[in-house]
């Protein structure tokens, strides 16, 4: 079954170009020309990935992303922006986008990025019906991670994680006790050249801390190693 991609952009020429190239690559493509329509289609159709423009009529891309995440729709989101603006990129990521690309871009580059995200994404419909008591898990303190089931629990409560947050958490737990540089995390988790934009790593680390640390200012699990990167540790006393 082909993967379903939703393209939300108010520039018809971009929608047409992306739709054609994604269909040529074997994807089923849905389209929307404004944020309100895009949000509605995302909720009703549950695509496997959303290509979402930042600047949209009615609801902008950041607002759409925020609303979907609030409704626990954790589909991967690739945000497009015409601005080379660090604030917009980081804000989009902080609100739940998994990735971004800056216009202008080649359609081939977008298709490659979509394939990379879906290939490594934890958001996979075929895993949604796996029984919750199956599978091997990684246990660190009060945290349990089931890599094959795409699930994680903290204090026995299921965590709501975006695909990239889950991938990062799996990588960190599998390399418990090792110092991991930001560049190493970019290369291993994002799996492509992100032009050294390590701020993306910091944003996702911050998201994880909010979900598994009782005090984000005094983290027990994800420690910052100044000048190097991060280290995932077994919390003392747990």
What does this structure look like?
- With 238 residues, the chain is an alpha/beta fold.
- It has two domains: 118 residues, Response regulator (Rossmann fold, 3-Layer(aba) Sandwich), CATH 3.40.50.2300; 107 residues, Arc Repressor Mutant, subunit A.
- Helices cover 39% and strands 20% of the residues.
- It is built from eight helices and twelve strands.
- The strands form three sheets. Strands 2-1-3-4-5 form a five-stranded parallel β-sheet, sandwiched between helices. It has a four-stranded antiparallel β-sheet with strand order 6-7-8-9, covered by helices on one side. A three-stranded antiparallel β-sheet has the order 10-12-11.
- α1 links the parallel β1 and β2.
- α1 crosses α5, α6 crosses α7 and α6 packs across α8.
- The longest helix has 14 residues.
- The protein is elongated.
CATH class of the largest domain: Alpha Beta
- Write down the overall geometry: elongated
CATH architecture of the largest domain: 3-Layer(aba) Sandwich
The CATH topology label of the largest domain is: Rossmann fold
Please report which band the strand proportion falls in: under 5%, 5-15%, 15-25%, 25-35%, 35-45% or over 45%.
15-25%
Number of helices: 8
The structural domain count equals 2
Biggest sheet: strands side by side, in what order?
A: 2-1-3-4-5
């Amino acid at each position: 079954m082909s993967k379903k991609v939703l393209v939300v952009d108010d520039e018809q020429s971009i929608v047409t170009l992306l739709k054609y190239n994604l269909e040529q690559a074997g994807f089923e493509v849905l389209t929307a020309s404004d944020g309100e329509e895009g949000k509605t289609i995302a909720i009703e159709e549950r695509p496997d990935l959303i290509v979402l423009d930042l600047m949209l009529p009615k609801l902008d891309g950041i607002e759409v992303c925020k609303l979907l995440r609030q409704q626990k729709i954790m589909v991967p989101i690739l945000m497009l922006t015409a601005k080379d603006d660090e604030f917009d990129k980081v804000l989009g990521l902080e609100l739940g986008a998994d990735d971004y690309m800056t216009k202008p871009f080649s359609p081939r580059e977008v298709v490659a990025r979509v394939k990379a995200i879906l290939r490594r994404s934890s958001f996979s419909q075929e895993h949604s019906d796996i029984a919750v008591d199956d599978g091997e898990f990684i246990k660190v303190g009060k945290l349990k991670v089931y890599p094959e089931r795409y699930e994680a629990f903290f204090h026995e409560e299921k965590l709501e994680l975006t695909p990239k947050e889950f991938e990062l958490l799996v990588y960190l737990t599998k390399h418990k006790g090792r110092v991991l540089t930001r560049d190493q995390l970019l290369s291993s988790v994002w799996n492509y050249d992100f032009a050294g934009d390590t701020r993306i790593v910091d944003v996702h680390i911050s998201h994880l801390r909010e979900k598994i640390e009782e005090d984000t200012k005094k983290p027990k699990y994800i420690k910052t190693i100044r000048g190097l990167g991060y280290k995932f540790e077994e919390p003392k006393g747990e």
